[in-house]
Task: inverse folding
């Protein structure tokens, strides 16, 4: 999306929310009526996911919304390129047994605390959804790391420069780095910092994540300034994996990385 242009996908999400609020219904009430989770209703209203046809059949009458929304979804939304990071990639994250994340600009989304996430989203000037809804959605994604049923192993390789980027101010940075260090001590979370002196820094182009799914398939998500792309071509995923291993080879060991993160956090408080 560019400028203030609203896509059909965003229009549908906003109309569903307006119709629900006009009926005086909560997301929880809609979820109960449709036998779905409140978080799924939230995903519909923040255009992260589209209601399935079987849900739409009951949702439209429940909200008293126009049947034209169904036609918009069928004829316009289906023709749009969906925001991959909000749909296909979320499914990949939920199915992942392992995630390999390289980040050269900000702390990975799965490891962000609330204030830092809000500062990142606000700085991105995302005007296509409510800020707080987007923050909530990002925090909701993080639940995969603490689920009881086989949470994925996250290996995050992060450039040292990320620890010094001023995102949200000194307090936000200090708190975020403490949060990152705490997360890095979990059994299923490995954080390694690539020091600024490492030769690998010359090869940094942009952030990416590789997900190994529960069926053994691999997908990658490559981010850029405008949007993201989910990549499934095996040779492209393999190229990213090789790049990840090169960067990780120059990274500090796990414990040294945690110690560096804590020192950097202290520097934000002085």
Result:
């Amino acid at each position: 999306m560019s400028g203030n242009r609203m896509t059909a996908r965003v229009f549908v999400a906003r109309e569903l929310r307006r119709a629900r609020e006009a009926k005086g219904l909560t997301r929880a009430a809609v979820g109960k009526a449709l036998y779905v989770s409140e978080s799924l209703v939230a995903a519909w209203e923040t255009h992260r996911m589209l209601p399935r046809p079987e849900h739409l059949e009951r949702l439209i009458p429940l909200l008293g919304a126009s049947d034209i929304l169904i036609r918009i979804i069928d004829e316009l939304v289906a023709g749009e390129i969906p925001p991959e990071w909000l749909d296909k990639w979320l499914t990949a994250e939920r199915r992942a047994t392992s995630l390999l994340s390289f980040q050269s600009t900000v702390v990975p989304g799965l490891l962000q605390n609330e204030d830092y996430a809000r500062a990142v989203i606000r700085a991105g000037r995302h005007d296509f959804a409510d800020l707080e809804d987007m923050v909530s959605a990002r925090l909701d994604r993080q639940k995969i790391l603490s689920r009881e049923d086989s949470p994925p192993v996250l290996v995050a390789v992060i450039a040292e420069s990320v620890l010094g980027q001023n995102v949200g101010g000194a307090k936000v940075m200090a708190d975020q780095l403490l949060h990152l260090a705490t997360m890095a001590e979990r059994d299923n979370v490995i954080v390694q910092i690539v020091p600024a002196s490492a030769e690998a820094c010359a090869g940094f182009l942009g952030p990416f994540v590789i997900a190994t799914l529960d069926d053994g398939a691999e997908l990658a998500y490559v981010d850029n300034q405008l949007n993201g792309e989910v990549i499934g071509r095996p040779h492209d995923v393999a190229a990213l994996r090789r790049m990840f291993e090169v960067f990780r080879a120059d990274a500090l060991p796990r414990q040294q990385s945690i110690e560096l993160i804590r020192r950097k956090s202290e520097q934000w408080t002085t």
User: Anything to note?
Assistant: The domain at 8-82 is CATH 1.10.260.40 (434 Repressor (Amino-terminal Domain)). Residues 1-5, 79-85 have pLDDT under 50 and may be disordered. Strands lie at 96-103, 153-159, 189-194, 208-213, 218-223, 228-231.
